[in-house]
Design goal:
Length: 508
């Protein structure tokens, strides 16, 4: 019976929203669809999309010779490191996409609620508490009642899977290369597999690396408007419309490590001409360079529709089921949205008293997004699903005008792209140039492999745990002022140490 009521109410409620907001949702969906159809990070020009800030920090040509950041080499190979760079830092884009599905939205139905007083036969406002801020309670706002709200949150991301984003090491290796020296049949590769593969002799140039230290600044300002309508005494419909501003800055201090002593890989800098012949060591000022790239974007984020139905209501306790539907209305290539539909059914239990505990559990299912895919190929992949759980309580502080709330918020993110900071082995340097037969760049007597810190892409499930503390002040009548902070308790994913929130809510 309850299930039938929930389904019927959801159908009726969402039908109302469809009639009220068709143009808004259609335009928002088309914006996201068209954005996904465009080419990503072109090699002939700088993109204005935030998704390309990292891949194009060395310019549109990347870490290539001639068309990229490296000087052209007129002899037997074209140096290219760009795929190594993109592959190692791709999990950052996935982390951004995952975080966009997890950015906490203030509860649209939080605030003053109305209950039916059977003795008086009318709806009366409850002032025992004003509800949680980032989670839900089983109570609904009351039949034909409206709640309007506005909130502002600021996210300043400092860590990625525990790694400090102000000091991310990355060492990029040379791509395999077919050696085109006349008469040679050797394949130059950093992972020799057969007799025709080599990283020595005339192939010593593949031992060169680009060592970098990267500083990434990522800030998100999110303004969110809410509207909730009590369709019945048991069923609420809500809509959350975020407007998001994202700014991303990347600085990379890069150094060419000339393991082959060939002078092949140096940066394009004023006063740094190409070595006249192989075997000529690079000047220090030509072997290092700092690069910078920045973009910002502002626009509508992913619209969230919510339905919540109270299936059981006691004198003070209640149990509700509901669901969130996230629409891909935000431009995913500018980190304004996750780039895919998300669906999150959830359950809520709460108890209404001076101290009002509540528990939420939910599971979010996501589709495919370019943020989880390969931006070099323009392909999408599955954005990780999440299990969400919340336990907290609200309580009245002063004369039924001020209430406080506390939540412990946990999320389990499944099979996500991540990065780990590890010491990795790289090919060692060759003996000094000029010792080879007839070629000053000939690589002989290579040293053993060396170790250097770098970022390694991985995949695994992880937890995100945060504590939320906030207050609500009944300023006048039915107007509530809201202040809140979210504090991280662990290091999983892309994290901001503290997230402030301010807002207001009005019920009528």
């Amino acid at each position: 019976m309850y299930i039938g009521c929930v389904i019927g109410a959801l159908q009726g409620g969402f039908g109302m929203l469809k009639r009220a907001l068709p143009a808004t949702l259609l335009v928002a969906f088309l914006v996201g669809t068209v954005a996904n159809a465009q080419g990503l990070c072109p090699a002939d020009r700088l993109s204005d999309k935030l998704i390309c800030v990292l891949p194009q920090v060395y310019g549109s040509g990347g870490l290539q010779q001639g068309i990229g950041a490296l000087q052209p080499v007129p002899w037997h190979h074209g140096g290219h490191f760009e795929n190594s760079f993109v592959n190692d830092l791709t999990p950052l884009n996935t982390a951004v996409g995952t975080e966009l599905t997890l950015l906490p939205l203030a509860s649209p139905a939080s605030g003053i609620v109305y209950t039916f007083d059977r003795s008086l036969g009318v709806l009366t406002a409850s002032t025992e508490d004003f509800g949680p801020i980032l989670s839900e309670r089983a109570q609904t706002i009351g039949r034909h009642k409206w709640n309007l709200g506005l909130s502002f949150q600021r996210f300043d991301f400092h860590t990625l899977d525990g790694a400090d984003m102000k000091s991310l090491p990355a060492v990029f290796t040379h791509l395999d290369d077919n050696n085109d020296v006349p008469g040679s049949t050797t394949n130059c590769t950093i992972n020799p597999q057969g007799p025709m593969d080599s990283s020595t002799g005339e192939c010593g140039f593949v031992r060169d690396t680009i060592s970098t230290t990267n500083r990434i600044s990522l800030r998100v300002n999110q303004f969110t408007g809410y509207v909730t309508y009590g369709l019945t005494n048991r069923f609420d419909l809500s809509l959350a419309l975020p407007v998001v501003n994202v700014r991303m800055n990347v600085t990379s201090d890069a150094k060419s490590v000339d393991n082959a002593h060939s002078g092949d890989h140096q940066f394009k800098k004023p006063g740094c001409g190409l070595a006249s012949s192989e075997g000529q060591a690079l000047l220090p000022e030509c072997a290092s360079q700092s690069f910078f790239n920045t973009r910002n974007a502002t626009g509508i984020g992913d619209i969230v529709l919510r339905g919540k139905y109270t299936v059981w209501r006691g004198e003070r306790a209640g149990l509700a089921f509901g669901a969130d539907l996230r629409l891909p209305s935000g431009d995913d290539q500018n980190f304004l949205g996750a780039g895919t539909v998300g669906f999150k059914p959830f359950a809520v239990f709460s108890y209404r008293a001076r101290l009002s505990p509540h528990v939420n559990v939910g599971y979010e299912v996501n589709g495919d997004s370019i943020l989880a895919g390969d931006i070099t190929q323009g392909t999408s992949a599955h954005l990780p699903n999440q299990f969400i759980y919340v336990a907290g309580a609200d309580f009245v502080v002063v004369n039924k005008r001020l209430s406080a709330t506390f939540d412990l918020i946990g999320q389990r993110v499944f099979d996500a792209g991540r990065v780990s900071r590890t010491n990795k082995s790289f090919l060692g340097a060759c003996a000094p140039a000029g010792l080879g037969p007839g070629d000053p760049g000939y690589c002989t007597q290579p040293a053993p492999t060396s170790q250097a810190p770098t970022l390694t892409p991985t995949r695994s499930s992880f937890n995100i745990t945060s504590a939320a503390i906030g207050v609500k002040l009944r300023a006048a009548g039915r107007l509530l002022l809201i202040g809140h902070i979210l504090v991280k308790l662990d290091e999983g994913g892309l994290r901001s140490p503290i997230v402030p929130l301010v807002g207001l809510s009005y019920t009528f």
